[in-house]
Amino acid sequence: MTKINSGATPKQVRQDLHPLVDFQQDGMPLDQLKELIDKTLMPHLMAYDDPAFQSMFNAYPPAEARLGAEIMHNTNQGVTNWQVSPGGAMLEEMAGKALCQLFGLAATADCTFMYSGTYANQQAVYLGIHRYAEQMGVDYVNQGLAAFPDPKRLVVLVSADAHFSMRHAIRMLGLGEQNLIKIGLDSDRRIDLDALKSILSELKGKKEVVCAVATSGTTSTGSIDPIKPMAELLPKHVWFHIDGAYGYAYKLVPECTHLFDGDGLADSITWDPHKQMGAPIPNSVLFCKDGADFGRMSLYSGYFNREEDTEPNPGLKSPPTTRPMSALPLVTILKGKGLKTIVEELAQPVRGMRQMADWLRSQSDFEVCHRPDTGILCFRFLKPGLSAEESSRYQRKLYDAVMASGKRSISTTVLDGQTVLRFAVVKPETKFEHLRQSAEAIRLISGQMNQ
Ligand SMILES: Cc1ncc(COP(=O)(O)O)c(C=O)c1O
Questions:
Q1: Which of 135, 111, 134, 105 is closest to 123 using CA atoms?
Q2: Fewer beta carbons within 10 Å, N or C terminal of the chain?
Q3: End-to-end CA distance of the chain
Q4: Nearest C-alpha to atom 8 of ligand 1 is from which residue?
Q5: What is the pLDDT of residues 281-290, one digit of tens each?
Q6: Is the Cβ atom of 57 under 6 angstroms away from ligand 1?
Q7: What is the 8-class DSSP label of residue 192?
């Protein structure tokens, strides 16, 4: 089996890369520079296209994506508005509308391309606070949180397994992490609706919920929170956001579509095409059910993004002024592959993970931690006689040994304070068979550790 990266230590990688960042007065011919990169950097990059890469959400761009990316990079269009790139600005606007249609969102829906899912989540919370301020008749735009009679009352609700970008969001928006309220989970690590109900009644009269977030595809387990029942429980004024950075793509897969029921009720949705679509990073999208809500972000200037302009102006919908033509590689993926292939490819890891969960359940030395909703599965290798704490340490040791081999990449996460092993697969090349081989490698490593 070939290695999927060098397996080198940070010290070795640092040493190897040194000649690359040792800047000199004189330049270097490009062929030599390329040779230097091939020698120093390339061996240490991760081969995302290898079926043994089973740990994270990264994917190599397919040929269709590279076509768009090449044009994006070669022309270096900034697509903030019509003046800077008529074609680029129009493409972003039109692709955005087409994506809303692809996901079956309302005719009023619109989207904006962002530098990451993290920023999309942050903007969603901002939009929620902005709309709440409007309903309260306070001037949030000028006065910030101080505009609210008691800013300490403003809270955001998320799943206990929400991505840490929600913590970034609440910190950066000045609400503070104590105002991020985590809702407990059911046995499949989806938001527990009874827990949500209790929290809502506990908060009544004491706090003001400005935003609630369903994660559709949690980072740890890929679980999809119950969107429609959540939407029905939330008071009308609450901005309902779906963090689908990882999982929203699976709405397109017929066996998963029902898990997204009610997504049309969300005020906003985050999706990262730079995950399983293999769109070159950065490629993130923030949808809004009502495109007019993007007006909450709009800032005008005298030189461009003028209020009176009627041409497309993607830069009015989210903060970056200089913005990449991210729409193009996504368009070339969708057009080049065609929707039938896209859906079939997206379905592969989901099916593989379901098969793997069944197989692990049939093995006496493995334990499955949840039912897989998407392409992620957490599990433990069972070693008799270990306490919970010792078992946690043991999973970590197994993980370290797998990674040190450089032959495969798996991951760990922590569920309810316990370290567990994790497969996360976003590409069709990794099949059930590759996952089973990894489980058997783990079993073998455990046997060797016991000798
Ligand atoms: C559920 C979820 N939300 C948000 C993010 C952050 O997205 P990004 O990495 O694009 O900032 C991730 C990243 O993995 C994620 O899994």
A1: 111
A2: C
A3: 24
A4: 117
A5: 999 999 999 9
A6: yes
A7: P
Atom of ligand 1 nearest to the CA of 272: 10
User: 3-class SS at 310?
Assistant: coil
Query: If DSSP codes are grouped into helix, strand and coil, which group holds residue 363?
Result: coil
Q: Is the CB of 116 under 6 A from ligand 1?
A: yes
Kindly report, residue by residue over 122-147, the tens digit of the pLDDT. 999 999 999 999 999 999 999 999 99
Per-residue pLDDT for 310 more than 60? yes
Span 278-282, average pLDDT: 96
pLDDT per residue as tens digits for the range 378-405: 999 999 999 999 999 999 999 999 998 8
Angle ∠(70,118,375) on CA atoms, nearest 5: 80
Point out the ligand 1 atom lying closest to the alpha carbon of residue 274: 10
User: Pairing mode, if any, of strands 154-159 and 110-114?
Assistant: unpaired
Neighbours of 205 (CB within 10 A): 8
Q: Which of 113, 161, 163, 215 to mutate to test the pocket of ligand 1 (most atoms within 8 A of CB)?
A: 163
What is the CA(364)–ligand 1 centre distance, in A?
34
Cα–Cα nearest to 285, from 430, 102, 74? 102
**Listed residue (84, 78, 72, 77) closest to 311, CA to CA:** 84
Q: How many CA atoms lie within 13 A of 234 on its CB side?
A: 26
**pLDDT beyond 90 at 3:** no
Q: Provide the pairing of β-strand 284-288 with 376-381.
A: unpaired
Which atom of ligand 1 is nearest to 217's Cα? 1
Q: Which of 55, 122, 165 to mutate to test the pocket of ligand 1 (most atoms within 8 A of CB)?
A: 165
Q: What is the pLDDT of residues 142-162, one digit of tens each?
A: 999 999 999 999 999 999 999
Give 437's pLDDT tier (boundaries 50, 70, 90).
Answer: very high
Collapsing DSSP to helix, strand or coil, 108 comes out as coil
* Beta carbon of 58 within 6 Å of any ligand 1 atom: no
In order of start, what are the domains of the chain with their CATH numbers? 67-337 (3.40.640.10), 339-450 (3.90.1150.170)
Instruction: Characterize the bridge pairing of strands 268-271 and 239-244.
Output: parallel
Select from 126, 90, 96 the least CA-distant residue to 111.
96
Give the position, in ligand 1's atom list, of the atom nearest the Cα of 246.
16
Confidence tier at 118 by pLDDT (50, 70, 90): very high
pTM of the predicted structure, to 2 decimals = 0.97
